[in-house]
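seq:
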Amino acid sequence: MSLAIITGSTGLVGSETVNFFHDKGFDVIGIDNNLRKFFFGKSSSTDWIKTKLIKRNKNFKNFNIDIRNFIGLEKIFKKYRKKISVIIHCAAQPSHDYGKNFPFLDFNINATGTLNLLELTKKFCPDAPFIFMSTNKVYGDNPNKLNIYEQKTRWELKKTDKNYKGIKENFSIDNATHSFFGVSKTYADLIVQEYGKNIGLKTVCFRGGCITGPNHSGASLHGFLSYLVKSSLNQRKYNLIGYKGKQVRDNLHSNDLVSCFWEFYKKPRAGEVYNMGGGRYSNCSIIEALDLIEKIAKVKIKRKIIKTPRVGDHIWYISDTSKFKKHYSKWKQKYNTKKIIEELIDHQK
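struct:
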């Protein structure tokens, strides 16, 4: 029996990955100690997801281990070494604001935790693909330097702009403000590449845009669409922080993302990088998302605009996914933004 190790197993992407690989016939080891509750409070606890996962998946076991705990991780890798077929690393400290306030914790989780997992993969299961959930924040605020212009409901690029279809993987990560979170994830991203290109492990970095879905325990500091829907429906109000609420995000359903993992697992490469988001197929501004919620849920949402943006926040970001599609032509997106929001609204009922 093949075995998948999934970190952040009770988070949005991790839980979707647990279900997907379990349904493919894998035994699944989850590593998650619910730090999200520690970061963002009780309402963001992922215990409810862990309960669902255990009930749904008979060959799933979750270990309450922190990825900073090398010795704890080593016991698992040593025990299952011959069975491990894939490592999917989704665990992280995911917030700009939290990382700025607690830089040591942020770096140790995102950077050192990733290094721990790479070393253990090299030692115990070097043939297993290592899939890392990176972020578009590795580009810092460089996307804000594009020729962005203002429209009624969004910021946008002209169709003649070379970046109109989205940001490519060769976009610069230098000379930018990243946020502390962005810096710690950039180290993790680069070290994952290095273990592929330098040592030969089958590693990949998926630089995600806004990943979303019903398993997201959205909080004000992290989880754009999930928190937006939850806050809008429950409180009937939402704060638009910076850029008049016209900043654009591409939105990728966690199920579409995990199907990317599957394609890579079947045909892995060494030290690869892919920008992975909704692309031109699935994107919206915050204002457009609120308009959609009002229309679909038939509610009125009070909007408060806060002029000061978050440090390192993107005014416009859309992923160019053409490189992944070229390498893995069977992958297809199932969810656009409207379908994602409809599902999130149904989940809140």
